[in-house]
UniProtKB/TrEMBL annotation:
<dbReference type="GO" id="GO:0140096">
    <property type="term" value="F:catalytic activity, acting on a protein"/>
</dbReference>
<dbReference type="GO" id="GO:0005524">
    <property type="term" value="F:ATP binding"/>
</dbReference>
<protein>
    <recommendedName>
        <fullName>Asparagine--tRNA ligase</fullName>
        <ecNumber>6.1.1.22</ecNumber>
    </recommendedName>
</protein>
<dbReference type="GO" id="GO:0005737">
    <property type="term" value="C:cytoplasm"/>
</dbReference>
<keyword id="KW-0963">Cytoplasm</keyword>
<keyword id="KW-0547">Nucleotide-binding</keyword>
<dbReference type="InterPro" id="IPR006195">
    <property type="entry name" value="aa-tRNA-synth_II"/>
</dbReference>
<keyword id="KW-0436">Ligase</keyword>
<dbReference type="Pfam" id="PF01336">
    <property type="entry name" value="tRNA_anti-codon"/>
</dbReference>
<comment type="similarity">
    <text>Belongs to the class-II aminoacyl-tRNA synthetase family.</text>
</comment>
<dbReference type="Pfam" id="PF00152">
    <property type="entry name" value="tRNA-synt_2"/>
</dbReference>
<feature type="domain" description="Aminoacyl-transfer RNA synthetases class-II family profile">
    <location>
        <begin position="130"/>
        <end position="420"/>
    </location>
</feature>
<comment type="subunit">
    <text>Homodimer.</text>
</comment>
<dbReference type="InterPro" id="IPR004364">
    <property type="entry name" value="Aa-tRNA-synt_II"/>
</dbReference>
<dbReference type="InterPro" id="IPR045864">
    <property type="entry name" value="aa-tRNA-synth_II/BPL/LPL"/>
</dbReference>
<dbReference type="GO" id="GO:0006421">
    <property type="term" value="P:asparaginyl-tRNA aminoacylation"/>
</dbReference>
<dbReference type="GO" id="GO:0016740">
    <property type="term" value="F:transferase activity"/>
</dbReference>
Length: 430
């Protein structure tokens, strides 16, 4: 019977065969301990000289790191291991012998590991991060499907900027100018006018020359848009979504969080509703914490967001930012013309903004005024303005950055480890 490591608990006391790679090994006289991985998990296999043929035992002792094998034996419960089971080996067959595998159990520098990212992914820690990432994606689909959202895929090649920035990757689209998408939001608004509640999940690109631990050039966003939903209602959906992600990871990724040595008590104590402070209050809070240079109208950097987050046990919403530092499409505050109905959700522990969202302008004349203020002309933007011309309604949306969320929930320090093949300012391969 051929099985995977993840299926081993279902085959306790039965003899099975597993296709695996040798992650590590140690031997002590008449016994060898093989650390196996097969993509579904990690497990120890015990090879006892007295229980198998001499030739098989010598093969086991001479296995090199990352050699691929078929290994046969009895699955036995072992409460000492994190996985809970091990294999007592009766036979093994070498498929391909790996020679001079470059990533050894010793310490390696970050640049070396990034140069070998295609191999670094095989390590136990990187495997755990990718499993948590997968769980967040799975839970995202479950949450929005259960809430009646429809998955819609916006284009990656676009003729315009979603947020009016110049930090775009430019390309030629036959005889036209085109850009790699920095957000699917504008298209998702059109989809919401057709389907009510929609969400997208896809790659976005920012030509931002940043080297901080929070930034990637290519990253993945979950972007819901909701018809007939106003700002306050959107905030409730956001915190419910984040709570669902946290609970799903805690429930389904216990082994991975243990591998990553994540302090799960910090996640377990998070409860909705999340605190909310206005931008005005955030400025005052920062001044009290010694940020004397911050002024009303300034955007927040990583140190500011961390200082604000450290004042709360939960993630915190900062609401009502100044109009001039936010995107052109955000709905003005009903009582003030200098701020807009928006919110950034700041994660605890220094992980920064994980969600940005707002109510969108739905009045045609006001949106046309914003177009004129920002110089948005031509067919690349005309269709978006048209959404306000034919049955316009209040609507809201937000975007959650997948990699920042993975970093936060796993406790990983640098965002480059949260995506399989990171694109950084100085890195386009592997």
């Amino acid at each position: 019977m051929k099985i995977t490591i993840s299926q081993a608990p279902d085959y306790n006391e039965k003899e099975v065969t597993i296709g695996a790679w040798l992650a590590n090994k140690r031997s002590s006289g008449k016994i060898a301990f093989l650390q196996l991985r097969d993509g579904t998990g990690f497990m120890q296999a015990v090879v006892a000289k007295n229980d198998i043929e001499e030739e098989v035992f010598q093969t086991a002792k001479n296995l090199t790191q990352e050699t691929s094998i078929y290994i046969t034996g009895k699955i036995v419960e072992d409460k000492r291991s994190a996985f809970g089971y091990e294999m007592h080996v009766t036979n093994l067959e070498v498929i391909h012998e790996a020679e001079d595998y470059p990533i050894t159990p010793k310490e390696h520098g970050t640049e070396f590991l990034m140069d070998h990212r295609h191999l670094w992914l095989r390590s136990k820690k990187q495997h755990a991060i990718m499993k948590v990432r997968n769980e967040i994606i799975r839970a995202t689909y479950e949450f929005f499907n259960n809430q009646g959202f429809v998955k819609v895929d916006p284009p990656i090649l676009t003729a315009s900027s979603a947020e009016g920035t110049t930090e775009l990757f430019h390309t030629k689209y036959f005889d036209e100018e085109a850009y790699l998408s920095q957000s699917g939001q504008l298209y998702m608004e059109a989809a919401a006018m057709a389907l009510g509640k929609v969400f997208s999940f896809g790659p976005t690109f920012r030509a931002e020359k940043s080297k901080t631990r929070r930034h990637l050039i290519e990253f993945w966003m979950i972007e819901p848009e909701m018809a007939f939903i106003e700002h306050e209602e959107s905030l409730v959906i956001q915190e419910n979504y984040v709570m669902f992600l946290i609970q799903s990871v805690l429930k389904n990724c216990k082994l991975e969080l243990d591998v990553l040595e994540r302090d799960i008590s910090k996640l377990e104590k998070i409860q909705a509703p999340f605190p909310r402070i206005t931008y005005d209050e955030a400025i005052e809070l920062l001044k009290e914490k010694g940020f004397d240079d911050i002024e009303w109208g300034d955007d927040f950097g990583a140190p500011h967001e961390t200082a604000i987050a450290d004042s709360f046990d939960n993630p915190v919403f900062i609401v009502n930012y100044p109009k001039d530092i936010k995107a052109f499409y955000m709905q003005p505050h009903p009582d003030r013309d200098d701020v807009v109905l928006c919110a950034d959700l700041i994660a605890p522990e220094g992980y920064g903004e994980v969600i940005g969202g707002s109510e969108r302008i739905h009045d045609y004349d006001l949106m046309k005024q914003r177009y004129e203020e920002h110089g948005l002309t031509g067919p690349a933007y005309e269709w978006y303005l048209e959404l306000r011309k034919y049955g316009s309604i209040p609507h809201s949306g937000f975007g959650l950055g997948l990699e920042r969320t993975v970093a936060w929930l796993t406790g990983v320090e640098h965002i480059r480890e949260t995506i399989p093949f990171p694109r950084l300012l100085n890195r386009l391969h592997p």
